Structure formats: structure tokens, C-alpha cells
Amino acid sequence: MNRDMTSRLVRAGLLTGVTDGLFACVLALFFYHSTVTRLWQGVASVLLGKSALDGGLTTAWIGVLMHFGVAFTWSAVFLFLFSRSSWIRAQVASRNGVIKVASVYGPFIWMAMSLIVIPLLVHRPPSITTRWWIQLIGHIPFVGLPIVWSIGRGARS
After folding, report:
1. Is the CB of residue 73 less than 8 Å from the CB of residue 106?
2. Could you tell me the CA-to-CA distances from 95 to 17, 37, 38, 98, 100 in Å, in that order?
3. What whole-number distance in Å separates Cα of residue 144 and Cα of residue 147?
4. How many CA atoms lie within 13 A of 87 on its CB side?
5. Residues of the chain with confidence (pLDDT) below 70
6. Residues 76 and 84: beta-carbon distance below 8 Å
7. What is the pTM (predicted TM-score) of this model?
8. Which burial class, exposed, middle or buried, applies to 31 when counting CB atoms under 10 A from its CB (0-12, 13-18, 19+)?
């Protein structure tokens, strides 16, 4: 991987991890009346099981690391697609292209994670609630947009 691609990946992974993480923290604190620690313990519980909810700050930090791992993984997937597809590069470079592509890629990530990945790991079917829909829409500005903007930055039609 060349230096430019590495730079795009690092920028996308970090920016996505931070923006989506802040979005999740705001939702947890102000709308769901929970705590930031509980939020990240919940993330950790996907791999560690329900005991992560009683793991204190240790499991919360594991959840944060998992969150950034997922942000970097989806950023790498988009970087791969972007580098291999002239069609995707053209879409991103078009007028409002970053927003258009983010409007598809962000919800795609949420659906893949919430409908396939997490249910496979926790051995439970997904729960489609109001929170699920909030996350679906929130993945446009807080996940799709930072990934597509960071990786597509400088692409012009």
C-alpha cells in the first residue's frame, strides 16, 4: 500500500472512530439516559459476552478499541473498493458525490453489522427498534461521510 493510501486509511479510520464514537456517546448520555462506560462495555460484550457489562473501565476500553477496529475495517473496505472501481471514484468525484455515496455506504455498514455480524457473534436475532432506525440514519453523517470524504478527498470528475 502506498503512502497516499495509508494516509487516507488512517484519516478515515480515526475520523470515523471519533465522529461515530461521539455520536454514540451523545445518544447514550442524553437520549438513552445511560453512561459512556456502559455504552463501551456493551460494545465489548459482543465479543466477551454479558460479563463485559460488569468489567468496569477495562471492558469499556476494550469496547473503544473494538469500535476503532471496526471503523478501520470498514474504511479499508471502502479504500479497496475506491481504488479498484473507476465507477465509485467517478461517483465520489461528481457533484455532491461524497454525500450520495455516504448515503448508501453508511446505512450499508449499519445493516451489515446489525443484521449479520453482531447477530452471528451474539447468537441472537437483531432487534429492529427506534434506536435501530436512528443508527441507520446516523450512519450517513457519522460513519459514511467521514469514510467517503477521507478516502475520496482530492478525487475530481
Report:
1. no
2. 26, 40, 41, 8, 9
3. 5
4. 1
5. 1, 154-157
6. no
7. 0.95
8. exposed
Question: What percentage of residues in the chain have a pLDDT greater than 90?
Answer: 96
DSSP codes of every residue in the chain:
--HHHHHHHHHHHHHHHHHHHHHHHHIIIIIS---HHHHHHHHHHHHH-GGGGGSHHHHHHHHHHHHHHHHHHHHHHHHHHHHH-HHHHHHHHSTTHHHHHHHHHHHHHHHHIIIIIHHHHHTS-----HHHHHHHHHHIIIIIHHHHHHHHTT---
Determine the Cα–Cα distance for residues 15 and 133; give it in Å rounded to an integer.
23
CA 58 to chain centre: 22
Q: Which pLDDT does position 119 carry in this prediction? A: 98
Predicted confidence at residue 1, as pLDDT, reads 67
Taking alpha carbons only, the member of 44, 14, 21 closest to residue 142 is: 21
